[in-house]
Amino acid sequence: MSGREPRRAVVTGIGAVTPHGIGTEVFWKTTVGGGSSLAALDRGGCEGYPLRVAGQVRGFDPAALVEETFLVQTDRFTHFAMAAARLALEDALLADADFDSPYSVGVVTAAGSGGGEFGQRELQNLWGQGSKYVGPYQSIAWFYAASTGQISIRHGFKGPCGVVASDEAGGLDALAQAARTVRHGTDTVVVGAAEAPLAPYSIVCQLGYPELSRATRPDHAYRPFTSEACGFAPAEGGAVLVLEEERAARARGAEVRATVAGHGATFTGASRWAESRDGLAHAIDIALGEAGCRPEDVDVVYADALGVPEADRAEAGALADALGPHARRVPVTAPKTGTGRAYCAAPVLDVTAAVLGLQHGLIPPTPHVTDPCHDLDLVTGPARAVEARTALVLSRGLMGCNAALVLRKGGARGPHR
Amino acid sequence: MTDQVSYEVTLEDLAALMKRTAGVSVDPDQFARQADAGFDTFGLDSLGLLGIVAELEKRYGLSMPPDAERCKSPAEFLALINSALTTGV
């Protein structure tokens, strides 16, 4: 063991369950092709609300990827998380791994609202029939910590576990927490976020958000950085990544895709979008500082892209403040306009796209956006071929959290091939 | 007046409840052979047993003894449940 070389957290596996489909490959292919899975919300019980367009995960058979004992005790958001975790471990060639110690693997997830569908069913039983009709798994299933716990139980991981509850930006904060855990001595951390907000109770909760798009046309519902911006379309699904200590990953011959190089987080208050400019700019400064990057090193930005004019202006301003003149040159993209915003999972899907984009030398475009009205080089139309080394991923939450994450292609010793 | 209703809850009933309320499938032969083994052997946790107790209480309209949810094995659980059901306590 070389004592002087710092421990670095690298991405070695990715699993995604998204509106684009089940698995990382279909997510990437659709994303890089500029495809959109936004459509009329047609899930049973969800009709009749003034939310018409969303990113639904269709064709998801949880029983194909998760054992029944876990399914009955968990909500759909945990089904997504457990399925994505399994896909990520398979992708990292760790699915059947005999880890040296169960304590060498940790789990970190983020979730914004927990298990709304499960909770609604049990609360309806409570008020409709009485307390004896509430199942005991209600105590754990609707709790936003459920996914971390169930992934850890299912795979027998006993290393440091955690749950980040910091709004949508929590998806990036979870990755930062996982990277810290790796740097502090745990060799492997399974990290990500999944959400299932497309159930009646959850939808009613979201109707209180002024930022929610009430548009009826899927191609008009979520168009950030344009003069037609009218809010965001929500989505369900999630992604999970396997982070490993770089030397340990190389020692077992794993493919080192990207390094989690820097992170910054700030807070500027719920729906105070003008103020998020300053908060986001500071988060970018902190993240670049930790990564040892100059502004001009950033080759691509995955924007938060809320789709609210004031928030879009603040984000463009934050990039100008943090990156200086480079903000007008660096390609900016928001592939989430093709999936919708899956709350905490949204930035994790962006990290997934960013890692794959670095690997493939491509920047996926921003679906549904053709005429950006900000001074940004927004990638629209076809994907752009760029041999990028460094990606900056941004996220803001409706409750005021801001976060920035810097990813670098490959590991410290360059891309592994 | 004597109550003629048979309240006996069998291993098969318990296996069906485990499947329905906790998603736990057991092999009938193994279940019968290892009725003295801990519930954890079959993958049932304490919340799962709590759910089964609640189901039985609804089915028979009786409160089960507080110890029911603390039983360690299917055999111990069925003995306690059936005793409570026959005495009506």
Automatic annotation (TrEMBL), chain A:
InterPro entries: Beta-ketoacyl_synthase, Ketoacyl_synth_C, Ketoacyl_synth_N, PKS_Beta-ketoAc_synthase_dom, Thiolase-like. Residues 6-409 form the Ketosynthase family 3 (KS3) domain. Coiled coil: none annotated. The keyword Nucleotide-binding does not apply. Pfam families: ketoacyl-synt, Ketoacyl-synt_C. GO terms for biological process: fatty acid biosynthetic process. The keyword Ribosomal protein does not apply. Keywords: Acyltransferase, Transferase. GO terms for molecular function: 3-oxoacyl-[acyl-carrier-protein] synthase activity. Belongs to the thiolase-like superfamily. Beta-ketoacyl-ACP synthases family. This is Polyketide beta-ketoacyl synthase. It comes from Streptomyces longwoodensis.
From TrEMBL, chain B:
Residues 8-89 form the Carrier domain. It comes from the Bacteria. The keyword ATP-binding does not apply. The keyword Phosphoprotein applies. InterPro entries: ACP-like_sf, PP-bd_ACP, Ppantetheine_attach_site. Keywords: Phosphopantetheine, Phosphoprotein. Pfam families: PP-binding. PROSITE patterns: CARRIER (PS50075), PHOSPHOPANTETHEINE (PS00012). This is Curamycin polyketide synthase. It comes from Streptomyces longwoodensis. The lineage of its organism: Bacteria, Bacillati, Actinomycetota, Actinomycetes, Kitasatosporales.
